Amino acid sequence: MKILFASSEVVPFIKTGGLADVAGSLPQALAKEGHEVKVILPLYEGVDQEWREQMTFVKCFNVTLAWRQVYCGIFELEREDVTYWFVDNEYYFKRWQIYGHFDDCERFAYFSRAIIEAPGQLGWAPDIIHCNDWQTALVPVYLLEEKYRIPQLASTKTVFTIHNIEYQGRYGDQVLQDVIGLDRSYFNEGMLAYHRDVNLMKGGIMASSFVTTVSPTYAQELRTPFYAHGLDGVINQQSFKLEGILNGIDTDLYDPAQRGDLASTFTVKSLAKGKAACKKALQQAVGLQESPDVPVIACVSRLVGHKGFSLVTDALHDIMGLDVQMVVLGTGDWQYEEAFRRAQGQYPGRFSAQLTYSASLSNMVYAGADLFLMPSVSEPCGLSQMIAMRFGTVPVVRETGGLKDTVTPYNKFEGTGRGFTFSNISAGDMTWVLREAVELYHSNKKAWRGLQKEGMTADFSWSSSAKQYLDIYQRV
Q1: Residue 327 maps to a domain
Q2: Same domain, 172 and 312
Q3: 223 shares its domain with 276
Q4: Beta partners for 420?
Q5: Domain residues for 374?
């Protein structure tokens, strides 16, 4: 099968969030199953020179975008059995950040047009174009007309994955003809119309052959207004072609036995010694007291509301009233950053606010912490809880989305589970289960080791997920 995977960001070339991790790992897992996979993404200014030096210029051509004829260059790079196509246009992509510009609608409409044009220009006929989030949501819409013009797309089907429905690509209806280049029928007949605006994600859901989300629970949550951000009606209407498939992680990349950047590598058998060394290194690095017997609670996240940080700030003094230390790594909304700065001053040596983005420090946190807190209001899948478990760090999560699908709660009667969970959006409930976790840490080392080992040995690889995607590709 020939698969074209379209994404606005891809690890290891460019990343702002979990979408890039998926786009970096899933295509490789599909290629390992024996399929021909190509990934297409923009050639941003932020793509490092080391990657640019490995690229080969393939072709340039013009892309029609409404009334514009716009240059498009394609550069190619092959890596681990996957071919990467980089769409070159400096006017749209030579920017200091990849999102957040006044003309994002035009930029990603252009990218979607380039995705449609590239197979014909390069003489390659994909069976499936797999699109991801609102930045590529116009591809299934454009394909409705262009497949009759481009022979290579005559039999192509589209799969559209919702990674986070909160970001939908919503713009005023004036963009329809002048920017996107579609006639009013797409609006009047409802494919793109949403409360008198144009909604690109709605178009992707309506026009695609199949829709997936990044966890089974999130697929069910999207049927409700609370989680769907206004698109619950569309989701329910199109539910016949909706399925949730849990994301995986790169289990080789996040393997504590292979990471040379840790204070000590470790396996399940050498867990106690390895975690102790990593915990000491973390405490030294972030300014916590070197207390081997005090549990360290960690958060690695964007500090925003839907990640549940209002619960953390509301309960901060209750949490610190437990016999714990805490480290928070990430950046985000000012009110959370300021609350954590104050907490660091109030609890010196016990609370550390690392208000930055650091891949190396995040790995140190995953490996050195004892508990990993994710109190998300919504979490489509979540990768951090899986990474934490790979490093023997026990998760405490709210039962939503992929957190519910990956973290089975501890059962003290049967001695089973991978972590601790709570269901209500409640600071009190979160503090209650944190207290339970801390008590288990101090009182029952055997049960604690069991939780750690369950997490470390769980299968979070892409292998199973890739097979589920392939089954969908075959069906459509």
Answers
A1: yes
A2: no
A3: no
A4: 396
A5: 271-457
Q: Is residue 262 part of a domain?
A: no
Task: Classify each residue of 371-393 as buried b or exposed e, where b means 16 or more C-beta atoms within 10 Å of its C-beta.
Answer: bbbbbbbbbbbbbbbbbbbbbbb
Residues 394 and 308 in one domain: yes
Model pTM score = 0.93
Q: What are phi and psi of 412, to 5 degrees?
A: -70, -20
Contact status, residue 176 vs residue 67, Cβ threshold 8 Å = no
Instruction: Please give the Cα distance from 215 to 326 (Å, whole number).
Output: 29
Helix ranges (H only) for 37-188 are 49-52, 90-93, 104-122, 138-146, 175, 185-188
Distance CA 165, CA 182 (A): 23
Q: In which residue are the tokens 């080392």 written?
A: 445
| Alpha carbon distance 251, 384 (integer Å) | 13
Which residue from 410, 357, 415, 366 is spatially nearest to 386, judged by alpha carbons?
Answer: 366
The per-residue pLDDT for range 76-120, each reduced to its tens digit, is 999 999 999 999 999 999 999 999 999 999 999 999 999 999 999
What torsion do the CA atoms of 256, 51, 91, 302 make, to the nearest 10 degrees? 10
